[in-house]
Protein 1
Amino acid sequence: MIFSNPTEYAIRGLGELACRAGGEPGRVTLLDDVVAGTDLPRDFLAKIFQQLVRAGILRSARGRGGGFALARAPHEVTLMQIVQAIEGPQTLDRCVVGLAQCHDTMPCPQHDLYKPIRQRLRDYLQTTTVADMASSLKAKQAWRKINEEHRPAGAAAAGSAAAMGRSSSK
């Protein structure tokens, strides 16, 4: 994609966290549960999540039962906030070809072509939330299958008992 690996991992990790926490802000989820069934690197994601804690997007809890939780409701956290927390506030204003000086009065060769794309990207990042990401992820059959396979044993048993309760009441 167009972002650094840390930013991509932050976006993916927050989507996973929101899914596994059921979209509840403040619900602490173990990092091992966030990365289960994904190719997200656990230790690297832990460092990225600490950046998101410092930015006020996540909360962290230490010790037994510790992990990470969204600091706000998932529909209140935009992808733009995540990108800016990891890459800095001016990340979308950089020149697409890497020139130090690139603006309307001193454009690079790609400036005029990239300007509307930059605006569309900015609009997308400002209007897409962690809740949107989680909803999209949950809709994917492959994610649901992986989530079932990597659900903690207690949660799987509770889910099975709830499913059995629903089927026996019919």
Note: Strands lie at 58-61, 67-70.
Protein 2
Amino acid sequence: MLKFWREFKAFAVSGNVLDLALGFLIGAAFAKLVESLANNVLMQLVAAVFGKPDFTQLSFSLNGARIKYGAFLTDTINFMILAFVMFAVIKLVVQIGIGQARSFVARDCPYCITPIPTESLVCKQCGRQLVDELPSVEKAQQRLAEQRARRGIALPRRRQTTTTESARE
């Protein structure tokens, strides 16, 4: 039982589970935001054009059964608006470059079997060289600058302080 508990604890606090939980929470908050934009802004624009806030009251009777085509029409319009907003937001995120900062494709280091980004030249875990020949520092810095430029938005880098500057503070 103790071994089972340790395995469960390792699983529950592993990076993948925490990433999944964080992604779920952010996704839920994002869904509320998109739904609010669709219902409170865009659907109200539809209401302004057609003169009704929604079409749920539209119906007709057929052999004593009430067919509520207005509810279906409202749900269809809501879906189309939500789908369009999601498409526009995802398109904007890709255009800005957010999400490219993290490499979602990884490979395993052949020496220590640790997952590493595909662009790695040296394994951060075992320190072994993963390419036949390492580039010069200038070429490596140029490669890094090109990768950052492709990402779109770059956060400002913190200025590194020297030991004399930190001693003064």
Note: The first helix runs from residue 2 to 12.
Protein 3
Amino acid sequence: MSEEVSALFEIMQTTRSMRRLKPDPVPPALIRKILEAGISAPSGGNMQRWRFLVIRDAEIKKTVGAYYKRAWDEVARPRYSQSDPAPGTSPERFSRMLDAAQYLADHIHEAPVWIVPSMQGASPTRTAGSSIYPAVQNMLLAARALGLGATLTTLYLNFEKEVEAALGLPSDVHSYALIPIGYPVGRFGPVRRVPLVDVVYADRWGQPYRDS
């Protein structure tokens, strides 16, 4: 395996959600590299209907951040507090993840840059998402490669109309995620996942997958 291929796999295997971000400014050139990675992704029919809103405005972030925190306090935190640890993780790691999620809810408006991937269309669908989320993943990997922390969140969609109005989106344009970006507090990866044998099947549902 070449060094380039090894580096790519290392990036993928260490691109975890970085929810604790420093407020330090991020050079525009790095954000441009992330956006270029996004538009390098495939889209249905190569139509490239994606649009990316880059938010640096403190007042917009403060307004949207308040809705985000409300969604965390009223919806997500109560649900997670009554849930078992995520698959493949320990109660201690799950608790640390919740602490990081709480930090993001409290400080998301302080992240220096947000990217909001959006698309035109009456209502978001799974097929529409297939033309935007590959771009999102490219941007997350690019941020990791550049030493920047980022995470994909859709929690704000609990207040979709209010947030999209605050973002100034046209009525026929909808956001699909919010990606806060900044220099991370803490280290990258490795990601922790359940074994392949628990999630991959061969030919028929439930039939164990084997490499040969």
Note: The longest helix spans residues 58-81.
Protein 4
Amino acid sequence: MKDSVKAAVEQILDSYLEVNNHRKTPERYAILDAVYSTDGHFTLDELGEKLATEYKFPVSRATLYNTLNLFMELRLVIRHRFQGTTSYEVYGESHSHQICTMCGKVTEVKTPEVTKAIDALRLKRFRKDGFTLYIYGICSTCQAKLTRKMNTKKTTKTDNDNESR
């Protein structure tokens, strides 16, 4: 994590904990560091594994869950629910996700036209901070599997028709 970003997010967490008379636990700061050193999306289990292996700082699932909820409240982390899986990522730049409805693969995509349209959008009594767009479809890998499966069925049907003549 860049030092300036690290200092900024730690300051947000420090201020919140002080104002609300919460303890500044090493677990919260270890989780914050692990989250902000992760590229892209991560699950609760992946974060727990990273803390245990890379940081040598195992943390209970309940602590992870409660800390991520706190980070969401502070707008340091955003939660996504992709095809039955809950993932998290650092709150940041607006972006779009393409999600395969067959395998569940999630890919971030740049959509400058959408970003420009949302930036120009004027909403009444609402301050927009960002957006996340989900685009559902079938990835190229799954599409290739479907095509092979369909071709196999056609070949089998043709072979069966020829045998019955």
Note: Residues 1-92 form a domain with the Arc Repressor Mutant, subunit A fold (CATH 1.10.10.10).
